[in-house]
Amino acid sequence: MDSWVRFSGQSQAKERVIRAAQYACTLIGYTLQKNGGSAELISGLKQLESHLSLGRKLFRLGNSVEALESAKRAIHLSDLVLRFCITVSHLNRAMYFACDNILWVGKCGLSPKVDQNKWSERSFRYYLFSLLMNLTRDLYEIKLLMEAETSGKHLSDKLSEDNGVVSRGSSSSRHPIALQIRLLIHIFRNNPPLLLDLLKNSCDLFIPLDKLGLYKTNPGFVGLCGLTSSILSILTLLHPWLKLKP
């Protein structure tokens, strides 16, 4: 209950819930359309999706400032790679939110002359760059953990205990790819925040790729990716220990 109270009190949490509902509408609408659903129902879902998208933009007003503050904190990280990836990611997020705010102003009718297509493309570009930096950071974290595990003198014992790998000279040890996979499983099992962050960023990546035309999929796939990443984000808000730090 305490987790839920803390969760409901955050505007970011509300935005995540609305995001999940928005992409759920996208997924359901696409599924109904492919299966000959009611045109009226599909139209209603599209309208609801549009309203939810506009509502999300309202909750994101001012997020650029938060992203810039996060970038300022990341500058002081001792690890050079993490410092670069996290700082650049936050700076791109700040620009993404700024473009998003301009889009909100235009869609609300406060500034009808706003070029929606131009600013939407810009926002998705910044979003894509931010996600690429996040994924680079995730892969770097995995690399560090793999190096730490393989350099440990008790690696064989750990893998044997956690993943069923037998001692040296076994068939598994003669297959480095299989051993690497087991090592990854071992790392993810012991580092749930890293696994969740990797999954979330991987799902989110397909959204700007599709919107920018770099890798076209379909609304159903985009909806599924958005819904999945939203649920993972909600989990990290409900249980802060699942959020990757720093």
From TrEMBL:
Keywords: Membrane, Peroxisome, Peroxisome biogenesis, Transmembrane, Transmembrane helix. InterPro entries: PEX11. Its main location: membrane. It is found in: Peroxisome membrane. Pfam families: PEX11. The chain crosses the membrane at residues 221-242. It comes from Xenopus laevis (African clawed frog). This is Peroxisomal membrane protein 11B.
